[in-house]
Design goal:
The chain is an alpha/beta fold and about 230 residues long. Helix content is about 35%, strand content about 20%. The chain is built from ten helices and nine strands. Strands 1, 2, 3, 4, 5, 8 and 9 form a seven-stranded mixed β-sheet that branches. Helix 3 packs across helix 4. The protein is globular, with a radius of gyration of 16 Å.
Length: about 230
């Protein structure tokens, strides 16, 4: 997600298996508050993407999706919002965006350091999900059972590729982490919350919601994104 208030714009970037539709409950709330919102769908997760596109997409591809969007719309002073896997994407995009990002919001999302990957940052449960989900094709991870019917197979390579950060990310003025407290028994983010709470450069918020906060608790999520 990309958001803008006056000259600021917010872009929500969806988590694994999802597209721009995943933030549709929260977008109207943000727009009513005067923000401009650009909800993105990443390569391989768009309805018309073919198997070759899915197979070729990696973390660099998804980072380029975001940076090209900033370029195309001449966006500066942007807020990038990333859910789950997309924490990797917004971190990499902010590192390459030449100071055009003013705020990062990781919504129950990975907050990588240089050399991390989604695979290395998650827990064993989700590694099993990735491996089992990719068994049929070797390049696309099917969605886990029981979720939204609009989810699509997610490219495997972005989960495995390590991120390369130059240090520019540390210059983003405002960095926030939203921890969803409704799935304490299986979250991969508990240790991350502890680490970021000890870091004075980060603000950490607890949100009483399941993992899909922008769908399950849109009003509360919008309030945090609006800084209320």
């Amino acid at each position: 997600m990309v958001l803008r208030h006056a000259e600021r714009l917010t872009a929500p970037v969806p988590g694994a298996w999802k597209g721009s539709w995943s933030s549709e409950a929260v977008v109207p709330l943000l727009e009513r508050a005067g923000l401009t919102v650009h909800a993105l769908s990443l390569t391989g997760l768009r309805p018309d993407d073919d198997n070759a596109t899915i197979a070729s997409a990696n973390l660099d591809t998804h980072t380029d999706d975001v940076v090209r969007h900033l370029d195309r719309h001449r966006i500066t002073g942007a807020t990038l919002v990333g859910h789950r896997y997309a924490g990797m994407v917004i971190a990499a995009a902010a590192d390459r965006a030449d100071g055009r990002i003013s705020r990062l919001v990781h919504v129950d999302a990975y907050v990588p350091r240089d050399g991390d990957s989604c695979w290395s940052s998650t827990n064993e449960r989700f590694r099993e999900v990735f491996a089992a989900g990719a068994a049929a094709t070797g390049y696309a991870v099917r969605p886990p059972d029981g979720g939204h019917t609009r989810r699509r197979p997610h490219p495997l390579a972005p989960f495995l590729q390590t991120i390369r950060l130059t240090g520019t990310l540390a210059q983003v003025p405002r960095r926030e982490f939203i921890y969803c407290t409704g799935r304490e028994d299986r979250t991969p983010f508990a240790e991350l919350r502890t680490r970021l709470r000890a870091d004075p450069e980060w603000q950490v918020h607890d949100l009483p919601s399941g993992h899909d906060a922008m769908h399950e608790a849109p009003e509360a999520a919008a309030a945090l994104l609006l800084g209320e």
